[in-house]
Each structure stands twice: as C-alpha cells, then as structure tokens.
Sequence to fold (452 residues):
Amino acid sequence: MSRPRIQTAALLGASVGGLEATASFVVFPEIRDTIAGGSGAAASWTLTVTGIVGAAVLLQAGRLADRFGHERLFRTGVTGFCAASLLAAVCPVLWSLVLARAVQALCLSVMSPSSLALILRDVPSQQHSRTIGQWGAITAVAGVVGAPLAGVLVDVESWRASFLMFAALSAVVAALAWSAPQTDRQISVGPPIDYLGAATVVLGLGLLVLVLVEGNRWGWTSTRAVVVGVCAVALIFAAIIRSKHQDDPVIPLDLLSGRNMVLACVLSVTTAIGFFAHWLVMLTLLTDLWGMSLRSAALAASIMPLTMALLAIPAGRMIDGTDFYRVMVPGAIVYSVLFSLPALFLDGSRQWWLILPALIGAGVGMGTVWPPLTGAGTSRIESSRLATATALIHTCQRLGGSLGSALAVAWIAAGVAGEVATYRNPIWLLVVVGVVAAVGSSMLRRDRPFKR
Fold:
C-alpha cells in the first residue's frame, strides 16, 4: 500500500530539521568572521535563538495543530521556513540574520509536531516504532549530509549559500505538501483558546532556555541569571496552575497520567542532556586536544548520526515485535560502556581505538533510545492529540538539550586548556546519562494502559 502524498512530505520534512541542525554549526565560524565582525558572542545568537524560540513555542504549536489540522500547520510551517531561509540568505546585518533564524525556528516548531502526527495518524499502533524509526533515520541522514555539504558551500561561495540550500530543500517538501489532496477535518468549535495562558508558558519556557544557554556567559549566580531563572520558573508554575482550571489547557496535564508518557518526558530531558553534550564534548576534544580542523572533526563526529541512521529503522522494527525496553536498555548500556573507555583511559595521544567506539556508541544510543522515546510516549495517545503529545516530549528534549550544552561548556571552561583532564572528565556525564537511560527504559511497557 502506497503512502499518501502528504505523509511522504511529512516524512521528508524530517530532513529539513536534520540538515539545519548540523549545517548551522559548520557555517557559524564564517558568520562570526564576516557579518558579526569577528565577535563570537554576537554570532552565537544565530545558534542560541533557535533553541530559545523552539522550546518556547513547540508545545503550543502542537496544541494548535491538533485543533486546526495537522496538514494545515505542516504546510504553513514548511512554507514559512522556506521564506525565512531566503530572507536569511540576503540579510545585510547580524541582527536581521538573528531575526530570520528566530522565524526559522518558529516555523520548524510549527511543522515538527504536525509532521509526526501526519506520519503516525493512519499507522497501526503495532507499527509506530518502525515508522518513527524511519523518521529518525531520515533526520540522521540529513545530519550526516548537512555538515560536509555546508562546508563545501562555504568554500565555494559563502555562508549565504547554506541558507539557500535550506530554502531549496524546504521548497521541494512544501511543493509536495501543497500538491497533496486536503484531508484535514474541518475546524471544530471548541473551548476558547487561553491566549493569556499560552503567552505565559511561551514566555516562561523561552526565559528558561535563555538562562540555560547564557548562564555560562552571565555567571550562574549573577543577578541577571537569578532574576531570569526565577521569572521563568514562576511563569511556568503559573501556567501549570492555570491549566488545571481550563477546558483547553496550555499544558496538557491529563496526558501525564500515563506511565509511559511520564517516563518518556523525564527520559527525554535526561537523555537530551547527554545527546547534546556529547557533540560539544567530542568536537572540543578533537579540535582543542588533538588539534584537528573543525571540518575534519565534524566529519569524524558524523559517525554518530550515521550509526543512528543505520540503527533507527531496525530498532523500531524490533520494538514493534517485542517491547521498548528490550531494545532501549541494551542500546543505553552500549552507550554508557563505550563512553566509559575514554573516560577511564584517554591520554594526550590520538587514541582512535578509544574515540571511534565512543562515536559509534553515541549513534547506537541515539538510534535505539531517541526515536523510541516518542513512540513510547505516544503509544496510547489517540490520533486527535498526537501533535500535542509529540510536542510535549520534544519540548522536554529541547530543555534537556539546552541544559546538556550548558553543562558541557561550563565543565570544559572550568578546566585548563590543553590538559587531558579538561576534555576527559566531562565524558563521565555521558556515562551517567547512559546508565539513567537504561534504568528508565527498563520501566517502559507496551501493554501498560493509558489511565483515564
């Protein structure tokens, strides 16, 4: 049976986010040296703004998709991303580029939960993990291709060519999506949208990610960091309280009554800490300790998403035939064990016999744990709320990723440049993350009912 065109577009839409995620880091040095006038702190906003905006609006985008139609939000998101990418390619000054990047992140957040809902809505529950594995594999392949392709474009043209690449890819996906027959249900009349609650949670999540990504530069105990952090927590707490008394709550607390969903959200935070941190830890080790160029280090690090791409679909197929924990627990253990080797034995020489297994282990962990978390959390969710459920899980991943990046940067910055311990000790964070993922995954069960 052939896949409907809109679902094919949604599956290909995963490549847009995967390509953007890795290519953006590769073009960062040239953005810094050209449009940012050599200021790394200023140029870093082209990276951090995407995490801030994405985490802030992702959950609300999922709610709107379930309410107004998954196809409608997906088409809008991918088209907006194409337009924002074109604007980014012609931005004359840095802060206009930061604004364009913010719009890109907004559009990606609109299309992401909608795309997964479209992919899963007509798929039998016993095939969910396999389908999500396909989504994860496409994302990973795009990540593998994105880094070297962006490097070539920068060499041949400039950083602007990479944004044209984003625009071209998203235009193809948008054309496929708009050419598909419209099958969304009519907009139903529901409870009034809680605009105040939505604004509260968006602002709260945005401020929380802001303090996570800027805490190292501000100082974690500085007045600015403390004030922003307290305001973020207060706003999120207020949104939670408000959600208890709304017919259409901005935070879907009822979804957290299921054990798998709770575990998926918690593990999304903890695993994202490691999965985002290991990129920074490995790239810093390869460039600063071993003296490799950024391009060579990025090529070596691409072993991680390549391994994920090879494993994501088989892992999903195995989960559909057995259960989540039977695949996720071994994958998390492999992740932890292979990272424990460089944590124990790394010295100043180029010990590829330690680093290559760790890079492969990172891909094993991502391929066997990352996509299945979404499958586990949504396994008992009705199709009409799939976008909200996936957005809730991915918001947790964004928060964990911001925390993981901040922890890695702070740990490395606290050490002495050039000393082995500076780059070896942060690897213990990854070992602990693997152990936590194994323990948490062992409690996931396919047949556990979703409590009402």
In short: The domain at 250-452 is CATH 1.20.1250.20 (Growth Hormone; Chain: A;). The radius of gyration is 21 Å. The chain has three domains: 1-180, 194-247, 250-452. The CA atoms of residues 17 and 80 lie 13 Å apart.
